């Protein structure tokens, strides 16, 4: 991972913008240290300096606070629960190729945004798993119960059922509405993709993170009791619909761990990620933690 020591403010950043973005698109990520970021406005300005073609979030799993023009808070996920390795919004038809994260307030402890090279992860996975995932892709199954996660209204940015239906049809998402108004969706995406700049194959998905076997066992048990095994708020499967077993999910997460790099946040840190070359996670933490995020450079894979 490249770490650049900033020698100025946003003017310095603007002068080095193209170099930083190009390096991230080849190496996977670049960390910038020493920028004078003390509040949200400065963090948002840094993010906007580094991004091109901001992408607003749709189909999210957790609330975010919008700071305008493609800048959001990090996902509101319980501090004591990890967010496992994933590629941001990899279940969408259009994905952000670049993420920029800016640290306003580092946590007292923990809260690391850990990183993993998806090229190395792909090379480290069992060959039969890679072959099957390449051939079939992966599926994301969601039930918008209104109890866990965000509502379909928040996920699709509308209160109009027909507008949500139209969005899903446009983006290759099949829909079913239960009698009680619960929306169930299924979408199928590639699990291995070719990077548009380097031409390398990358393990690009959220197959393990959003699978039921990655959940805390007590949480999974509660959700199955509440909604049934076919009504979980979310889970994943192979692209042909075959469920994953616990051993397969554990194997994927173990390979991620073998290739994980960790660096604690410092105030003013900025992390520029290529979202296809790099998976990321968020570890549990204590104390206040404020990281702003910008998603940009949308691409259809």
Automatic annotation (TrEMBL):
Pfam families documented for this protein: TauD
GO molecular function terms noted in the UniProt entry: oxidoreductase activity
Keywords, alphabetical: Antibiotic biosynthesis, Iron, Oxidoreductase
Region annotation (Disordered) ranges: 57-79
GO BP, one annotated term: antibiotic biosynthetic process
Domain annotation TauD/TfdA-like: ranges: 12-294
Required cofactor names: Fe(2+)
Keyword Signal tagged: no
Keyword Iron assigned: yes
Basic and acidic residues bias (residue ranges): 57-67
Domain of life: Bacteria
Name this protein carries in UniProt: SyrP-like protein
Species, as recorded: Actinoplanes friuliensis DSM 7358
